[in-house]
């Protein structure tokens, strides 16, 4: 009987832990993205990818489509923003559940609703390509959002790439970043300087957020193990450690889509 009670107790613990939606502890999203993308080799079929952002061509790199052209997914009469998606069949059931958890995490905090595609023209094609990446905002037709099975299947990385798809750039690329963070160009690994390009972003009257899931960490893209970014005026402020969307990420999302 005692053995049966122990077995039942173990099963209960396993079930509870397996169903928990608490955020997993571990590396920040910026560290996960770096690991997944640093050695990724793109195929000819894949888009131009800079860091983890996809572009149709080189000329788009320093422009923010949400500022210059409009990149939003349309709002329905019921006030919700329905974003269709398709998840590739090459993911396992466990991998799919991580992606779906990330999709659902937007439903409780915004008017965004990710829905399985029926016959909609524009949709996210979520698949395991080489590394983690997404276009910024709505592009039209099937737009790839890559979550490589080797390194990208974490709640934080799913949220990060989905925020790109909804129209957001990296925090350190914000138009006002020089007031909050100093880029140490001399420490950046050669060839990765573009990851710190400043973009004319739509900041929606939200403060610079060191805790954003879109903010990279202090040593991101370092070529000499020295910091590539330092907060100002207080260099000791912690940043780039997010493992899920911050309150400011959510506020910014709701302001963009007028939720």
What characteristics describe this protein?
259 residues; alpha/beta; seven-stranded mixed beta sheet; two-stranded antiparallel ribbon; disordered N terminus
Mean pLDDT: 86
Order the strands across the largest sheet as they lie in space: 1-2-6-7-5-3-4
Fraction in helix = 25-40%
Beta-strand proportion: 15-25%
Structural class: alpha/beta
Largest sheet: 7 strands, mixed
- Given as residue ranges, the uncertain stretches (5+ residues, pLDDT < 50) are 1-24
Radius of gyration: 19 Å
What is the N-to-C succession of helices and strands?
A: HHEEHEHEEEEHEEH
Structure description:
There is one protein chain. Helices cover 25% and strands 15% of the residues. It has 259 residues and is α/β, with parallel strands linked by helices. Helix 4 (93-104) crosses helix 5.
Task: Describe what is shown at a glance.
With 259 residues, the chain is an alpha/beta fold. It has helices spanning 2-19, 29-37, 65-68, 93-104, 155-166, 247-256, and strands at residues 48-50, 53-55, 81-87, 112-116, 123-127, 132-135, 142-147, 181-183, 229-231.
Write the layout of secondary structure elements.
Elements (H helix, E strand, L loop, with lengths): L1 H18 L9 H9 L10 E3 L2 E3 L9 H4 L12 E7 L5 H12 L7 E5 L6 E5 L4 E4 L6 E6 L7 H12 L14 E3 L45 E3 L15 H10 L3
Parallel strand pairs: 2-6, 3-4, 3-5, 5-7
Antiparallel strand pairs: 1-2, 6-7, 8-9
